């Protein structure tokens, strides 16, 4: 799943492909055409010595190791990749305001939207109904639809002509979103409600940078079913 082109300096990615946060880093590396070694981690099993050494604080994936130095947390790693490999296309805009807007939406995606998707995978929490969770998710996707209209300036991606920071942050979750839709019978990417996002998702999944970084659709569905069953 690593990009074919190599660059100066050893690059390793510690992770598990079913993790959207690992997928996020893989997409960024592919976008920059950075060759890397993927080191498989089993999160539920014994954590490897290299993971514990590389991320002693959180002890979790993903971790990018570049020239022997570890970088942790997916959003931070993506920014690091953009700053180290300055070849086109840039992931973040050179304009401070546009960068700030992109960071806002990445934080929103991580803190708000996908928390709802995870809740549907594991089951609604006490005091919260499935309908309430679905309504919250629909509202979040509507806000992202509006954000896309503003950020894309009529082009194909949040980042404009090419995949950018927000595209990567949201796109890495598409496999999980589609699986949750199928298992819960709740449609988030509804062409009637969020047509811009639906078109964007199709383009994103066909982009070369995204190919090879995600599991097959049925694997995500089975994973969601397993999570739902374990939560009962």
TrEMBL record:
The keyword Membrane does not apply. Its EC number is 2.5.1.18. InterPro entries: Glutathione-S-Trfase_C-like, Glutathione-S-Trfase_C_sf, Glutathione_S-Trfase, Glutathione_S-Trfase_N, GST_C, GST_C_Tau, Omega/Tau-like, Thioredoxin-like_sf. It comes from the Eukaryota. The keyword Transferase applies. Transmembrane segments: none annotated. GO terms for cellular component: cytoplasm. It catalyses: RX + glutathione = an S-substituted glutathione + a halide anion + H(+). GO terms for biological process: glutathione metabolic process; toxin catabolic process. Gene3D superfamilies: 1.20.1050.10, Glutaredoxin. Residues 9-89 form the GST N-terminal domain. Residues 95-227 form the GST C-terminal domain. GO terms for molecular function: glutathione transferase activity. Belongs to the GST superfamily. Tau family. This is glutathione transferase. It comes from Musa acuminata subsp. malaccensis.
